[in-house]
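Lab notebook, bench 4. We co-purified these components, and the gel suggests they stay together. Before we commit to crystallization screens, I want a quick structural picture of the whole thing.
Request: model the full complex, all chains together.
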Amino acid sequence: MTRKTLGIIVAALALFAMAAVFSLYGLRPGVSSDHADSPAVLARPGADLTDVYVFPAPDNDDNVVLAVDAHPLIPAGMGPQTFFDPGVMYQFKIDNDGSHVEDLVIQLKASAPKDGAQTLTLYGPGKPNMTGTSSTWIEPTGTFAYNKASALKGGIKVFAGPREDPFFFDLARFFEIVPDRNFGNHGPGKTVPPPSATGFRGFAAASGCDTTPAQDFLSANKFNVLSFVIELPRSMLSPNKGKINVWASASVKDTGSPYGAAYTQIERLARPAVKEAFEAFDQHDATNRSAPTNDPALADAIVDFTKKVAGRSDATAAVLKAVLIPDELSADLSQENVKAAYLGSETGGATGSKFGGRGLSDDVIDISLGAIFGTTVSALKLAPDDGKESKCLTSDNIDASGHRFLGYFPYVGKPN
Amino acid sequence: MNGRTLLACAAVALAAIAAWPSYYSHRTAAEASLPTPAPVTADYLNRDRIVTIFENDVRRNPDQIITRMLASEYLKRYRETGDVSDLLRAEHVAARSLALQPRFNLPGEMTMASAELSLHQFHRALAHARIAMQIEPWNSAAIAQAAGVETELGNYPEADRLLRSAHPGPITDANLDSALARYDEITGQVAQARELIQRALVVTDSIIDNPAEARAWYHFRDGELAWSTGDLDGAERRFNEALAIFPNYARAYNALARLYWGEQRWPQALDAATRAADLIPLPETLGYKADALRALGDARDAQVTQDLIVAIERIGNASGLNDRALAIYYCEHHLRLREAITIAQRDLKLRDDVFAEDTLAWAFAANGRWSEAEVAARKAIRYDTEDSRLQYHAGVIALHVGRRREAERRLRRALELNPQFHPLYAADARRLLASL
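Here is the predicted assembly.
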């Protein structure tokens, strides 16, 4: 195996192993004997956040929609029997002044399920009692029922319940390309065996890449997630309808906290696949437990990975770091009558619109693959072409066609 | 599962879930500061349905991910029902996942190791557990699994080395704690083992998505440890907690049967053993049932039950899963004594742990082969395991080979640990001590 091939394999291995991917571990070893993107969320699927979305409401452009999915891999038909974890504080954190520190929070609390029902309480949007990785409940806004779209005061719409997992990716092929997603395992003296595939599938006949059909693991097997979706006037998140930066977190009660009833963050998620793409798996927990502004690992990991593993130029690595740090979904609320476009706010609209955020049908995997393995960075004239693209890794050739998004609130497809 | 059975299970589950908070009203002040237990999710009621969904998925899209997820569901169902055919299904499907992704398939390796461990294919389980550990050397669940297999094989120094190499993160790792507890239990540190299991229990109970059987297992394990050190009330409470969380938990009924059997509370022993045997007819369970029937004067049904144990040896002992319990039953009831040695030797070949040595020691003793019994007993007791039965066996054997001080020490230790560890042997230990 050449050094370049090895680099590509190793690069791909660490690339977007989604939270859902890691949820596949889940085992009690031995006589008794379960994995998410860190040991903490592996042990607690209800706190395992899989994707975050920020997009203009399709049926009311005055509103913006925030959605976060949790609890991956709920089998078809099991959605209504899966509940939000009552021990978890679910939060959206919103920075609206460019400081990358939350100015507003939206919190969700779940009751203990009873007779197949659960009551959710929404807190905020409001100023947090504290910033960072410890949190306490702010003033409640209202309560609503599990699995029922509801309206609360202030023109807020909320939904919390099972939905079809909206994420799409050729996961099985990913594992064939990147059998060892933990690139931390690679190093001097270690031998990485050849993978059973060196690129994604589903390419056109004359491409020189694999032409066998690609398959979306999640939609093919009809998996569901628990979705928390909130739609609210743009002005509630940014009085001047300016840029906001959004991330989601899951926190659990910390009995040892000096704040008494404080919750401690064990999961943080914003851009899809960033943490998973660039960091060694054993670093995820530290990132999950940090704020975007004091992440101990991610920035260096992006540069190291892009240069040393993916083999790209210093300039390409620097661009990726500048775009992806801090890890937040950036959305420009001044952009009206346009759709969301992942990384659009950061790239001047190069991915579709300057709104940015992330829409349900945005092909975030192809955008990410293009940036790391393709010519996206050089095409945008953000860095010179380094000539080190890997064509067969630039797309997984899966789009959103396997999903059934709704044209009305809560927009995420009905559960399988 | 037919509709009536499903309804019955659902009713029992709902009753148990409703009863669950009452158990926690008895929490101690120290326990009250711990995380609140989450409501129990009766996931086991959906197991057959989930298995069917994944079986259909595997037929349509047989990739390496969905196959290992199916294997994992088979394992869960095995733990819930004791149906060994689900272990064979899990092993078969995990093998398909590993064939589809032969390298770096950590979940596939761990699923396979779990299935093989439960099938008593210890060395094959260890090979897969070690591959999993090589894939993610920092993964404490993988380390715990490998250490667990080493422990079952009796490779205690290696198990110790692996467990010391694990670096738990900022959260309690229930997998690691349970493996550490097993090691501590065997090496004579039951109090420390209980602390670990209780810590894991609290964490496991605080998470709503944990399978009911998995939650019940930690209560069952703490009950086992309580029983082994004579905390009979604590053990009974834990076993009943396990049943409140996961009704029809054969392990908990079996453990209750053993507890009542040791206390010679025969009607309760018969009831618990009958419930356990109706779920999973293990030789050990049937042994408690036969003894209880005999003690209650029902010699005919006792004989029928004993005949069933022999029948299981001949036709229902796949992979030798029941070897240890069969050998012990035969020895204690002076039945098929030569076969008991053969069975114990077969078990020892599979795993040379302290319990296999103890079983062989007692089989030799039952056949009057005291010098061979002594050799095995010395190995069985080399970690001074806090298990009354091991201590008693070693004491009796020491007495027969003329080591009176050792006999006295072991017999006294057996009674100190659990004065009611056995309906006959506890009294016998007292009698022998009095004669020394």
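Residues 1-33 of chain B have pLDDT under 50 and may be disordered. Worth comparing against the SEC data before the next meeting. The longest helix of chain B spans residues 3-24.
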